[in-house]
Specification:
Layout (H helix, E strand, L loop, with lengths): L3 E3 L22 E3 L4 H4 L10 E8 L2 H15 L5 E3 H10 L7 H10 L12 E8 L4 E9 H27 L4 H29 L10 H12 L3 E6 L5 H14 L2 E2 L6 E12 L7 E13 L4 E2 L3 E9 L2 H28 L3
Length: 345
Amino acid sequence: MKFLMKFVLVVLLVQFTNCTYAQKGKTVQKGDERPQWIDNPYSFYSERQYLVGVGSGDTREAAEKNAVAQIAKIFKTDIRVDETLIESVLESSKGKKSELSTSSEIYNRTRIKSDQQLKNVKIDQVYFSEKDGMYYALAYLDRVETSALYEQDFKENDRLMLEYFQKSRNETNKLHRLSDINKSIALFEINRLINEQYKVLTGGNVLTPSVSKSELDQALRSIREKISVSLAAGSDTPQEVGDYLREIIGNIGFKIVEQNADFVIKYELQTEKSNLNRPGIVALNWHLKIDVVDRVNNFTLKTFNMNKRTAAISEGEAKAKILRTVKENLKTKFYRQLMDYLNSF
């Protein structure tokens, strides 16, 4: 299953890491004569060599942040990637001596959060208009310098991607092989994000990966088809729970079989009435328990447990609400737990 998400891309570099958002500019200019760069910033900087942004605000800090934000807007683009896979792969490397820790830093630099700013942008001009009481700031970013750093990041990820892809071909353990291919695909996806930024900086140039998307997809399909799962329901567990699990497993690409499976998923949903002493309200305490047995590596995953109480105007409505909650948690929390395990090898 792929949870696809739009990413807003911006350039974040490792330089100037001691700056909170941009290098401070020169002394604030003042006066009634409006500087030319406010309305025509590229009269100061060549558009072929720099990206430039002009911002305004009630304070100098607000104007500078706004100028940086104008440059960030240049990098905005919509790109669909499997965020769950990327984050699961990178999470699996935490606490281990893994080269993926560098890729994790690179990935974080390709994303923007509301409290992040571009760290390598320089503020060159700041002007205060005494006439309207506003500050104006001019920010710029060097295209060549920035694209060189992104090319370096791309090549590092590409080297690791190829390494994991080649390693997967020699794996005899099917789950280890799957983990290596997932790592390769995650690195490929991160490089797609980098390429989007690189294209903006270089006017459309792209960097070429060592392994194609079609090769990675074919390798992933091949190993997924070799992994099987069987489902074992507990007594009185609604059929819908099994249907939700089948949907998740099917979207992952594993086969569902009756016996001799690589994974056995044991699941049980129990409910019992709870007296809330509220007329017209029915409450049910419920417990969802899932065990995932890995027969390839003779290991049982940490049990997935949920204990909750659900109330509604009728028992039927309460049970329907429980199943909706179960479905949502299986598609998110349980799916992520299973992905983390698959990527942990």
